[in-house]
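Data availability (excerpt). The following record was deposited with the supplementary files.
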Amino acid sequence: MEQRICKECGHKLLGRKDQKFCSDYCRNSFNNKLNEDANASVRKINAILRKNRRILEKLNPNGKTTLDSLRLADEGFNFHYFTNIFSTKTGKHYRFCYDYGYYEIENNKYVIVKKEDYVR
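Predicted structure:
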C-alpha cells in the first residue's frame, strides 16, 4: 500500500484516501505560501484604493464638491486606481473608489460625489 504524506510537513497521513494535509494548520500554511505573491499585489492595490477613498471622503464632507486636480494630487491621490466607472445618461463618466466618485470637468477640475443608494 502506498504511503501518503502531508504536503506541508511530510508527516504520515491517516484517514481518508483523498486527504492531503495532516491538519488545518498545515493546509492553511501550504495555501498561504502558495498565494503569497498574489496576495502581496492585491494588498498593495487595495491600500492605494483605500487611500484614494479616504482622500475623497476627507475633501468631500458635504456629499458633492468641486476641486482642482492639484489639490487631489497634493493629498497623494492616485488617478490610475479606481474600483469602477459609472456612466450617466448625460454622458458623464464617474470613476469610483468604492462609494466615492469623481469626474473631470474643464480646466483640470473634478467634481467629487458620494454614491447614493440609487446609483448602482
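Summary of structural features: The mean pLDDT is 91.
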